[in-house]
Specification:
The protein is of the alpha/beta class. Helices cover about 30% and strands about 25% of the residues. It is built from 18 helices and 27 strands. The strands form six sheets. Strands 2-1-10-9-11-12-13 form a seven-stranded mixed sheet, sandwiched between helices. It has a six-stranded mixed sheet with strand order 6-5-3-4-7-8, with helices on both faces. A hairpin with a 5-residue loop joins strand 23 and strand 24. Helix 7 packs across helix 9. The longest helix is centred in the N-terminal third of the chain and has 17 residues.
Length: about 550
């Protein structure tokens, strides 16, 4: 990759005394932020281990987290955003897979790291709210250390995404690519000089960095950091410093809309929100209630295909592909390699030719922006089959070329905007006493993304005990916080393919409309038998949020 670097953008702010970050009672100017980033760069270089060269960060959204990311850009180092929803062996595998030889965390999360038995020297676990670390950070600010000159191809970030096999997949983002994302945000997102940014999405996720922090550097925009998202505090937060822009994922909008509406909700400075996977109904309701326009798109951390919504885009569409030289985006039948026909819908808007129209989103022009997956050549090659870029995401197109997102292919699930594979969840559920075979798959959420559904075949004579199953789940230390099934289906015999592999297609098709389905209606691990009244109410929720087309059963 040629051109400038993210470090170049940062260094332009070295003498800027305007506000860069607010976080609680803390205020950092751009000058201080760059100074603190430089100090973290010194700490990284002092502890660099060529065998384990990367820095894993497990923190909430804080100026400290930002300083480590920006410090990595200055030091030609790489930061791995550790996903705090992961647990046990899955989290340990993430850290080992990405060669993290230095871990940055705080005293609250320190036990999570120590319980993993990573074998790291204690000096390679930095605890940011401990006095020794704070003294070392002060000393590093005064250190006379020459930092290396950055190059655009320097690997800056490893951002975890999902994989159908369950193997870790960490997307590479170089400092050159992040610089292009930052400077291109005026056109791609619509932010502009004078905007005040609000950032509450978790920073291990590409949404937070690519749709907020990076553009803020390019525009010298101040950012209010929220340590973690809070729907009840959203309006208070954006009013505090007059935020004009925020980034989101679909679930966060739903949580905000679930708060009590007030007559003064529109008393705010917000003009623009940018995100993904919010339903058309939620977007319209948010704009009505808060007076803020929302821009919705399709995109991924891999950075190949993204969409935008020009005037006249149908409400449920994610828009049309953003043009780039050589790009040729199509919806492809993965079995035949041919382009899927346009969607056909009936008078009620239901897709009538789903089996023919839904295919995988593919760029037949290749993937010049894709920088690969770290230490996963197989996954990288799979993305680039036959010289095309295969997203693994499903969609259909209408006769005018507008794209409609239709979920993840194979065994991917996306819950609360977190991607994960079914295999690790299946491995946990397979421990359940009495289980002969387990299948985990996605079923659409009525508002945004997916819900986790599991099918379980029990041993002959075994009876499903909902309370016992909930107790079992609660006792699993490696169960990710998004992994507990929303629906559990008990099957007499698991459907199998001709090669005796679990055939999930009929399971997905039936979803929660099948017999003998149990569910939890709220966040608690409490399951009850799904009755017909609840099925009807759930189906109505899909209609309310204009997502009935996702129901296959």
């Amino acid at each position: 990759m040629s051109g400038g670097t993210f470090a170049d953008l940062l260094l332009r702010r070295s003498d800027d005394e305007h506000v860069a970050l607010w976080c609680g009672e803390a205020t950092w100017t751009w000058r201080r932020l760059i100074e603190e980033a430089r100090a973290r760069a010194v700490l990284m270089l002092d502890r660099r281990d060529d065998a384990l060269p990367h820095v894993g960060v497990l923190l909430e959204n804080t100026p400290e987290y930002v300083a480590w990311v920006y410090g990595a850009a200055l030091a030609r180092m790489t930061v791995v955003g550790i996903n705090p929803t992961r647990r046990g062996s899955a989290l340990r595998d993430d850290i080992r897979h990405t060669d993290c030889g230095l871990i940055v965390t705080d005293s609250t999360r320190r036990p999570v790291i120590e319980d993993l038995s990573l074998g790291l020297d204690p000096a390679r676990l930095l605890v940011t709210d401990d006095a020794p670390y704070q003294r070392e950070a002060v000393d590093a600010r005064d250190a006379d250390t020459d930092l290396p000159a950055p190059a655009p191809d320097d690997r800056l970030l490893l951002l975890f995404t999902s994989g159908s096999t369950g193997a870790p997949k960490a997307v590479v983002c170089t400092t050159g690519r992040l610089a292009l994302i930052a400077t291109g945000a005026v056109d791609s997102i619509g932010v502009r000089e004078g905007d005040v940014f609000y950032q509450a999405m978790p920073m291990f996720h590409g949404n937070a960095i690519m749709a907020n922090l990076a553009p803020a550097v390019a525009l010298a925009a101040p950012v209010e950091l929220r340590p973690r998202f809070s729907a009840s505090q959203f309006l208070t937060d954006v009013r505090r410093h007059g935020a004009t822009y925020f980034n989101y994922v679909g679930r966060s909008l739903a949580y905000v809309l679930a708060t009590q509406e007030r007559p003064d909700d529109r008393d705010n400075q917000l003009r623009l929100g940018f995100g993904t996977e919010a339903s058309q109904r939620d977007r319209a309701e948010f704009e009505r209630r808060f007076g803020c326009a929302l821009t919705e798109s399709y995109g991924s951390s891999e950075g190949v295909i993204s969409t935008y919504r020009p005037p006249g885009t149908p409400a449920n569409s994610v828009g049309i592909p953003r043009p780039r030289p050589g790009s040729d985006v199509a919806v492809i039948n993965a079995d035949t390699g041919t382009e899927c026909p346009p969607a056909q819908v009936d008078a009620d808007g239901r897709l009538t030719n789903a089996s023919e129209a839904i295919g995988e989103i593919v760029d037949r022009g290749g993937a010049p922006g894709f920088e690969g997956y770290y230490r996963n050549e197989g996954a990288t090659v799979e993305r680039l089959r036959d010289g095309w870029y295969w997203t693994g995401d499903l969609a259909y197109r209408d006769a005018d070329g507008y794209l409609y997102f239709a979920g993840r292919s194979n065994d991917w699930l996306r819950v609360d905007s977190e991607n994960f594979a079914a295999a690790p969840v299946e491995a946990i559920l397979a421990r359940y006493p009495g289980a002969v075979m387990v299948a985990v798959y996605a079923t659409p959420d009525p508002r945004t993304g997916d819900e986790v559904m599991a099918a379980i075949e029990l041993r002959p004579g075994a009876i499903f005990d909902a309370a016992d199953f909930a107790t079992f789940l609660a006792s699993q230390p490696d169960l990710g916080t998004k992994w507990a099934p929303r629906f559990v289906r008990i099957v007499d015999a698991m459907p199998l393919t001709a090669t005796n592999k679990v055939n999930k297609a009929p399971l997905r098709a039936a979803g929660w409309t099948a017999d003998d389905v149990w569910w939890r209606s709220g966040p608690e691990l409490k399951y009850e038998k799904l009755n017909e009244a609840e099925r009807a109410a759930y189906r109505l929720a899909f209609a309310t949020h204009d997502r009935s087309h996702l129901l296959l059963g």
